[in-house]
Structure formats: structure tokens, C-alpha cells
TrEMBL record:
NADPH-dependent FMN reductase-like domain location: 1-145
Entry-linked PANTHER family: FMN REDUCTASE (NADPH)
Presence of the UniProt keyword DNA repair in the record: no
Organism name: Metabacillus rhizolycopersici
Keywords assigned by UniProt, alphabetized: Flavoprotein, FMN, Oxidoreductase
The name this protein goes by in its record: NAD(P)H-dependent oxidoreductase
């Protein structure tokens, strides 16, 4: 099984830090699960123009293939102007929705106000629903005050990271067992 962490921003570092924390927690407790990080800052991804995803080249093709090869996801974004990033929106637009179908998706977000956690409930979870992904009920929201320099230090947030990592693995393993028993859920 492969868990892909997505840092859905081309600016800042806090979102990547939280996504990496979830990946580290999964790797620590489930070394049999392959974890990988997709940091959008490291790729030159083209804007989606509506064409067939298989026709993109370069970094865009690499990113689409990386997402397509994953079994489940932890998706992170900073919250800007009360919404997730345009870079993450573009990523969702580039990938065929069928790629996400019946896969587990969890969310983390970072922001500068304590109310921005609502973006996860009101914007990100509905996207997962549209994609027909199974959404982890819990999530992690980290405010800028939960960090010291470039380290997540708030114990409550770290506990939520641990719980989300457990929840993602539990959901993925449970779905895999069901599909092996009764067949694919398409």
C-alpha cells in the first residue's frame, strides 16, 4: 500500500511540516506502508486546460502519475483568504476524478486564524465527496501559534496528527480487506 502526502502549496513551509508529521507517524507504526511526499514547490505544474490528463508532459505528467499510483492520501493546504490554494485546486482539476474513487483521503490545513479550520469541512471534504473518495472523519488544523520556528510543537495538534494517521491506515486496511473479500467497490 502506498500513502501519498500532498503539500498543496507553492509557498511557505508549515503545511509541508504537518503533512510530513502524518507520514512519519504512519511510517513509524506501519513500516509495511510505503509513504511518499508530493511537495508542489518541487514541481513546475502546468495549469489545467481541460485536455485529457494523459496528454500532459514533464512535471505535470510526473505529478499526475504519482497521484494515480497512490492507494490513499493525506492532503494539506494553507488557508488563504478563507479558501484552499489555487495550486491544490489546479491539482484536483488535472487528475481524472476516477483516480480518487474508493480511496481514502485525509486532510490537514494551516492558517493564521482559528476559524480557518472550517475550510476543511466546507470546501475540502465536499471535493472528496465529489471525487467519491472515502474521507477520514478527523483532520488536523494547525494555527501559526502551534509552531515554533519550523517545528510543530503544540501537543494537542500532535495528538491529532497521531490519531489521523491511525484513522487513515485503519480505513485503508479495512477497505482493502472488504474489496479482497467481496470484490471491487466500483
Amino acid at each position: 500500500m502506498k500513502l501519498l502526502g500532498i503539500s498543496g502549496t507553492i509557498t511557505g513551509s508549515k503545511t509541508k511540516i504537518v503533512v510530513e508529521k502524518v507520514l512519519e507517524e504512519v511510517k513509524k507504526n506501519h513500516p509495511e506502508i510505503q509513504v511518499e511526499l508530493l511537495d508542489l514547490k518541487e514541481y513546475d505544474v502546468q495549469f489545467c486546460d481541460g485536455r485529457d490528463p494523459s496528454t500532459y508532459t514533464g512535471d505535470t505528467k510526473k505529478v499526475i502519475n504519482l497521484i494515480s499510483s497512490a492507494d490513499f492520501y493525506i492532503v494539506g493546504t494553507p488557508i488563504f483568504q478563507g479558501s484552499y490554494t489555487g495550486a491544490l485546486k489546479n491539482l484536483f482539476d488535472l487528475v481524472d476524478p476516477k483516480v480518487f474513487r474508493n480511496k481514502v483521503m485525509g486532510f490537514v490545513a494551516t492558517g493564521g486564524t482559528y476559524q480557518h479550520y472550517l475550510v476543511i469541512e466546507n470546501q475540502l471534504k465536499p471535493i472528496a465527496g465529489y471525487l467519491r473518495a472515502y474521507t477520514a472523519p478527523s483532520y488536523v488544523y494547525a494555527h501559526k501559534d502551534h509552531f515554533f520556528q519550523d517545528e510543530l510543537v503544540d501537543e494537542e495538534v500532535i495528538e491529532r496528527v497521531t490519531y489521523l494517521a491511525k484513522e487513515l491506515v485503519f480505513m485503508q486496511k479495512s477497505l482493502k480487506a472488504v474489496s479482497e473479500t467481496v470484490g471491487e467497490l466500483n
